[in-house]
């Protein structure tokens, strides 16, 4: 299973880099397809009819891609407000997850469907903002989320005992959370000192903020990534689904792979907007 997951991940990263090499339109198109696939899976978890899932997912991806392609640029002030709203929604989701950690949680299907559109659209807008700062910069945000996920998996499997949210996702442990935080902080700290010229998101944080505050922000982003993962687990558990889909061998569905990213992207974009003002 692990080997299959690694192969799938490598193929996905290679496809993303190939699209980036082909130009911005190709990259945006690939990202829109990924977002559309995630929207379809999310709406299916929300128990929407198949035709509705297809139409809404395709329409959302097409509308966002068209707006980007035709240069419908959003003023920074409006983007700042939208990202703040998205972060506020994710904080409410975090409260839901915390309250349901030991007794379970449920999200009405209609609410879930609305959140699918709102939060995926916010993730898309955040992506566009971060891409404007450069592909390396965007990938540095991705790496933070991927690193947290990988560290949590291996540390949790080796030392995990106490569950974070046993009623939602029995596999998540506090040891895994600690491993995720330690890995992200260590890599961010070392990167900023050994390669300060690399346009990495975590390096920008450390250059613009006091070090304790910058590291605290990174811890908060790791926490958000875990919230995104646990929230998807809530959606799957309430419909007795193991995965959001079967598109990615060894990974399940697209949403299974980007659930943490969806939660982190608006916060990263909000911070980027604020730090560059």
Give an overview of the whole structure.
The chain is mostly helical. It has one domain (2-275). Helices cover 77% and strands 3% of the residues. It has helices spanning 2-22, 24-45, 50-69, 76-99, 109-132, 135-159, 174-194, 201-208, 211-237, 254-275, and strands at 163-165, 169-173. It has a two-stranded antiparallel ribbon with strand order 1-2. α2 packs antiparallel against α3, α4 (76-99) crosses α9 and α8 packs parallel to α10. The longest helix is centred in the C-terminal third of the chain and has 27 residues, at 211-237. It is globular, with a radius of gyration of 18 Å. The model has no long low-confidence stretch (mean pLDDT 91).
Mean pLDDT: 91
The description of the largest β-sheet is: 2 strands, antiparallel
Number of domains as seen in the coordinates: 1
Order of helices and strands: HHHHHHEEHHHH
Strand proportion, as a percent range, falls in under 5%
Helical segment tally?
10
């Amino acid at each position: 299973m692990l080997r299959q997951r690694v192969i799938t991940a490598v193929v996905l990263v290679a496809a993303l880099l190939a699209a980036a090499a082909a130009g911005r339109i190709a990259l945006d198109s690939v990202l829109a397809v990924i977002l559309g696939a995630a929207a379809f899976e999310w709406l299916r978890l929300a128990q929407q009819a198949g035709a509705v899932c297809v139409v809404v997912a395709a329409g959302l991806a097409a509308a966002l891609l068209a707006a980007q392609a035709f240069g419908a640029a959003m003023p920074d002030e409006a983007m700042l407000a939208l990202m703040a709203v998205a972060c506020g929604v994710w904080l409410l989701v975090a409260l839901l997850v915390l309250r349901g950690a030991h007794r379970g949680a449920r999200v009405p299907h209609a609410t879930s469907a609305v959140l699918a559109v709102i939060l995926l659209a916010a993730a898309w807008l955040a992506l566009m903002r971060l891409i404007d700062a450069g592909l390396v910069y965007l990938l540095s945000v991705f790496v933070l989320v991927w690193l947290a996920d990988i560290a949590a998996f291996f540390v949790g499997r080796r030392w995990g005992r106490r569950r974070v949210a046993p009623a939602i996702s029995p596999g998540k442990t506090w040891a895994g959370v600690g491993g995720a935080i330690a890995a992200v902080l260590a890599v961010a700290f070392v990167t900023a000192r050994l390669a300060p010229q690399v346009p990495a998101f975590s390096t920008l944080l450390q250059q613009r903020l006091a070090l304790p505050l910058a590291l605290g922000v990174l811890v908060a982003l790791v926490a958000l990534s875990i919230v995104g993962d646990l929230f998807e687990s809530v959606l799957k558990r309430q419909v007795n689904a193991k995965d959001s889909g079967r598109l990615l061998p060894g990974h399940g569905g697209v949403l299974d792979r980007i659930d943490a990213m969806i939660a982190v992207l608006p916060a990263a974009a909000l911070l980027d907007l604020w730090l560059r003002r």
